[in-house]
Amino acid sequence: MSGLKGNKCSSVVRRLILLVLLTNILLVLYCLTNPRQGNNSSSRRATCPLSAAQLLQKNVSVPPQSTKSGECSPKVNIMFMKTHKTASSTVLNILFRFGEKHKLKFALPKGRNDFFYPSPFRCSQVKDYRLGDCFNIVCNHMRFDHQEVAKLLPADAVYITILRDPVALFESAFHYYHRAVPLTWRIDGEDKLARFLNSPQSFYSANAFNSFYLKNLLFFDFGLDNHLEADDPRIARDINDLSKRFHLVLFAEYFEESLILLKDTLCWTTEDILYFKLNARRNSSVSRLTPELRAKALQWNEADWRLYQHFNVTFWARVEAYGRERMKREVNELRRRNSEMMEICIEEGGAVEAQKIQDRRFLPWQPIGESSILGYNMKKNIDPKFRTICEKMLTPEIQYLSSLGVSLWLTRLWGWLKDAVWI
Ligand SMILES: *[C@@H]1O[C@H](CO)[C@@H](O)[C@H](O)[C@H]1NC(C)=O
Ligand SMILES: *[C@@H]1O[C@H](CO)[C@@H](O)[C@H](O)[C@H]1NC(C)=O
Ligand SMILES: *[C@@H]1O[C@H](CO)[C@@H](O)[C@H](O)[C@H]1NC(C)=O
Ligand SMILES: *[C@@H]1O[C@H](CO)[C@@H](O)[C@H](O)[C@H]1NC(C)=O
Ligand SMILES: *[C@@H]1O[C@H](CO)[C@@H](O)[C@H](O)[C@H]1NC(C)=O
């Protein structure tokens, strides 16, 4: 009897919470449809002047370039298009650290950890933005819009992004977001992913809430149409446009090589690109796809697949130009330095389950209703001279943004609701 009552009660509470949740979604939608636009965008300058950005650098502690070959000086104006589920959080940490170290000016989001994704990027989404403001680094999740981004950055800014094999990306997004994508809720059975891929059209609807997470997510992130048919000539045109916008495209699959090219392009040091893999998922939660399902996933994400193949070719041409042997040496050196840092900073020699993370400062954001994202425990007795660098290298995106002064109230509200409803 009382058990029954308890059940009833908890279901009422659940519904109440869902109501609040929906209200929250409505609130977000309201914000999305009413981005506080600057008055008159047509009268804005097309790009911010180089002189203004160089002013930002006046007190930059740029290390003197010691190498003989290097006439270059470190590049500080950077646009990183942070794609979803591509190891981009690890790159973000590298950029945050570099920016902090050199006192660069970040264009940060307000109230949350992205620029009102999935609505297209607008300058008005930048924290404390005023017409004509210039920044050094833009690096948080957004739906890319080149013309808008260009207004924030000097003309010499380096545009960078990162891609990942579309099948792995699709699998990852499916896992990470399925509870946030209502159209997956009615897929029955153990292996929802396989069921979906076997007949996507019977579940998918282009207009359904958050459906973009499940189709050509890369194309969507780049501000492109993610529903183009495989034979649509606009796919090739869009890819060609992107190849003109981006100076360097990194690959999750060739992450170390990518960072070496990044270092080379930006004239940075190996120290600048040291990293611990952040936001990785527990191995057991990764679905291994059969070759048949892999083929279906590629077909379903054809635009992303073409994008990936295009840049894969240009990537390896760059590695060739850089020198294969030189690349091998550099990668080995990076690995050596990374494991040195791991030895210095991390307890138990590697990533651990979220439940085992003792210090909440290092607890990464988890998907709805799960705790599959791994994190680290920092060693207790770190040599004081390494303490700060260890802390920074281990700090997940949300906590790092907080420390950079972003309030994140919407993200936190969402996080609280997500835990209240599903745990
Ligand atoms: C919009 O333009 C009007 C008139 O020029 C000005 O008074 C107002 O402050 C502007 N608003 C914003 C948000 O820039
Ligand atoms: C924008 O500003 C320009 C010049 O300042 C003005 O001529 C134009 O009418 C304005 N447009 C709108 C939509 O307010
Ligand atoms: C540069 O910054 C440091 C502290 O970060 C400060 O002590 C120094 O006075 C600054 N130099 C200039 C030229 O502003
Ligand atoms: C994850 O699983 C794959 C295949 O099941 C295995 O090859 C790999 O070594 C595992 N990685 C870790 C870190 O356990
Ligand atoms: C990417 O390029 C490398 C080197 O040419 C090649 O081995 C690999 O198969 C390519 N990957 C894809 C998915 O095309």
From TrEMBL:
Entry's Gene Ontology BP terms: galactosylceramide biosynthetic process; myelination
Keywords from the named record: Glycoprotein, Golgi apparatus, Membrane, Signal-anchor, Transferase, Transmembrane, Transmembrane helix
Protein name: Galactose-3-O-sulfotransferase 1a
Source organism of this protein record: Gasterosteus aculeatus aculeatus
Keyword flag Transferase: yes
Gene Ontology CC: Golgi membrane
Lineage: Eukaryota, Metazoa, Chordata, Craniata, Vertebrata
Family of this protein: Belongs to the galactose-3-O-sulfotransferase family.
Subcellular location: Golgi apparatus membrane
